[in-house]
Design a protein that fits this description.
3 domains, FAD/NAD(P)-binding domain, Enolase-like, domain 1, five-stranded antiparallel sheet, seven-stranded mixed sheet, 21 strands, single chain, alpha/beta, 475 residues, 15 helices
Amino acid sequence: MEDAYDVVVVGGGPAGEVVADRLVRSGLTAVVVEAEAVGGECSYRACVPSKALLRPGAAREAARSVDGARQAVAADLDPAHVLTRRDRFTGRGDDTGQADWLKGAGIPLVRGHGRLAGERRVDVTGADGTVRTLRARRAVVLGPGTEPALPPVEGLDRIGVWTNRQATTADAVPERLVVIGGGVVACEMATAWRSLGSSVTLLVRDQALLTGWEPCAGEEVARGLTALGVTVRFGASATRVDRDPATRTVTVETDDGATLACDEVLAAVGRRPRTADLGLETVGLPAGAWLPVDDSCRVTALERDWLYAIGDVNHRAPLTHMAKYQARACAAAITERAAGRPAATGAWQAWSAQADRIAVPQAVFTRPELASVGLTERAAREAGIAVRAVEYRIDDVAGAALHADGYRGFAKLVVDETRGVVVGCTFTGPMATELIHTATVAIVGEVPLERLWHAVPAFPTVSEIWLRLLEAYGL
């Protein structure tokens, strides 16, 4: 059985949903192929459930940071209610709502494993083994996402290790949890499960957390985790793990000779593309590889413009909001080219996803919260930019002091002195994630500092940090 559409989208995650919707709105036909749940990792096993697990602890801490409210707040969270609330957001993996949304938008859904079967062809194998071939008149868009990568630890593949999937969907709080990793997932999940009562140990191979961020960010998170009761062990790597079949207890051995006992081990050391069984070899591409793309999300390894890759799989900016941004640009490019127009990249056009080169906002919901966009000071210097960095304690802003007793936060601007514009920004502290969009606008818009000075922040808000940073710069 073979069906033809203008565009075949392989992967029904956030990027796949957006690109299909935009294509159909433009007058093209599109079909979505999905083997698991429509909505993807983000909706059921990553962004949404992790934030649902983290928010109750943050809300409790926010209330307890204000005298008068502190006295009305219980000492501990109620894990059962936290997990129930998480399940309301995820539907425990039930994608009926999102599948119905596709139908209402006029987008057919084909359930099954999709893989390329040559140029503009996708074979879809259903649960019953039946194969259906979809032919794309215009383009195939690949959005399969990524999957957790496991570190080379002996026995890890035999113990039933947690990845982000188990860490965000577990139905009970482990008494003892060992987390391997020092990145965003490791730090957020250590925060969430410690808040719910688990005894958490974080094994960090490096000497700092979040090594791709400004140093202050990792330092503040390490301080926050320690204050929460997490044991953070820097320079420590797991070498061997084993689970007792009778007690279910896991033993973790480390390279410094220590032995830890726990109930679960979470491996959070990175991700790899889900392209091993995507049929890439049928069009001359290596199986299992990342898929580099241009700014229209066209796969650059092929000369013709029929194959596109959006979201994490192209390795440009592995974040849900950036995947959706790429999807919008990809749909616009396909639409333009279908109409016989070139959709050349390089300018700030709807079909050219350039923001992920200069301004990728990130939000981390640890305690304290972290947010960043653009370049770190180190990255800017390595890029040859004439840099001046400006730092200021958010604690000293009146709005922050009113927001929370003992507010602790940090702000840093990275300025391109030659052009007089902001190229990077980092915030830490309560509400940091709500501050970052202003910096994103300033960077993408290349707003001159002299003009930014006239964007007056309201008093008394935490956003007044912008005035203080510009004053520290000398304006």
